[in-house]
Design brief:
The longest helix is centred in the N-terminal third of the chain and has 15 residues. It contains 4 helices and 13 strands.
């Protein structure tokens, strides 16, 4: 896989598309793809690039919410064009829609809401956080090129509650990339979390015992934060599997228990008979 961290940062460096001739309300950016060992695009890459496309379009504002639909899988051997349409931009808020397109058609679409920094009442209600797991709980997750720790094994076929605490900390990186990197990470383990109560099956059985594909994913950002200054906890759970779909949601908290983001995902989940 090579240096995935450097590869990911390079993918977040979007640039104007050479053939961009859209109206004043639109722009076309292009991003390269991660060099992975399978043919389709990782949805987390698209989430991260959507965040970067929005930030580059409205540099005076931050992403407040991002809702993405994945109508079909993208190809890893072709760059992705991000066609941005600015529907509204005022002093405080902006709304955008972004289409991720390749020659084969639309790979994903995003609705993005943005907000300028603003003071106001600040409160939260979250359960107490456990201590960061020790070094003995360090895990290597193929698609996350940074330090991660968990106290459970997502690859275990033993039945367990559909919950997961994933701690992560990136290498030193610009704070402006924290939302994109975090959005990237939120796409990795919600399906595996949904599978935990089903004894005899785990995320390792994808493609054999079941097929899965993310159909929609939403991330909300609540506060500014960094991904390299202390640990982030992705606390997630899946309340339901039904009608060939699974659903999961989670929160992103700092080591000091500040709630900085939330996320939710629906995915296709079909078991082979």
């Amino acid at each position: 896989m090579g240096d995935l961290w450097t590869d990911l940062l390079d993918c977040l460096d979007l640039h104007p598309h050479a053939d961009d001739a859209g109206p004043a309300t639109a722009g076309v950016l292009e991003g390269r793809n991660l060099e992975l060992s399978y043919h389709r695009l990782f949805g987390g890459q698209l989430l991260a690039q959507f965040v970067r496309a929005a930030c580059l379009t409205c540099p005076g504002k931050a992403v407040k919410s991002l809702h993405v639909l994945f109508p079909k899988e993208g190809r890893a051997d072709e760059p992705v064009r991000y066609e941005v349409c600015r529907h509204h931009e005022g002093r405080s808020f902006a709304s955008l829609s972004i289409v991720a397109r390749q020659s084969g058609g639309v790979a994903a679409t995003a609705s993005v809401s943005m907000h300028a920094a603003e003071d106001g009442v600040d409160r939260q209600t979250v359960p107490a956080l456990p201590a960061v797991p020790g070094e003995e709980h360090r895990v290597e997750l193929d698609l996350l090129p940074w330090e991660t720790r968990m106290t459970v094994d997502l690859d275990s076929p033993a039945a367990a509650r559909p919950e997961l605490d994933l701690w992560m900390r990136t290498p030193e990186v610009s704070g402006e990339l924290a939302p994109a990197l975090t959005a990237y990470a939120t796409d990795l383990s919600l399906i595996g979390t949904a599978l935990r109560p089903l004894g005899g099956v785990s995320q390792r059985d994808a493609g054999t015992m079941f097929v899965s594909a993310v159909t929609s994913h939403t991330v909300w950002f609540h506060r500014p934060f960094r991904s390299d200054d202390g640990w982030l906890l992705l606390r997630q759970h899946s309340p339901v599997i039904a009608h060939g779909r699974c659903f999961g949601r989670g929160d992103v908290l700092t080591e000091e228990a500040s709630l900085v983001a939330s996320f939710a995902q629906e995915a296709l989940l079909r078991f082979r008979h």
